[in-house]
Amino acid sequence: MRGRKGGPPTGPNPVDRGKTGSKLYVLSDAQGIPLSVGVSGANVHDSYALRPLVTGIKAVP
Hints:
Elements: E1 22-28, E2 34-41, H1 47-55
Antiparallel strand pairs: 1-2
C-alpha cells in the first residue's frame, strides 16, 4: 500500500548546514597548553579554520 500524499512536513534538514551559532577551535601542544584559538560561524567548514590556527602560532626562539 502506498503512503498518503501531502502528509505533514518532515522537519528541518538533518544535516543542519544552515545552523546558526559559532564554533570554537583550539590548537594545543602535547601537554594540552593552548597555542592558538579561533572562532568561526557554525556553517563554515572546519578545514577553513586550520590555516589561521597554524599561522597564529608564535615562533619559539
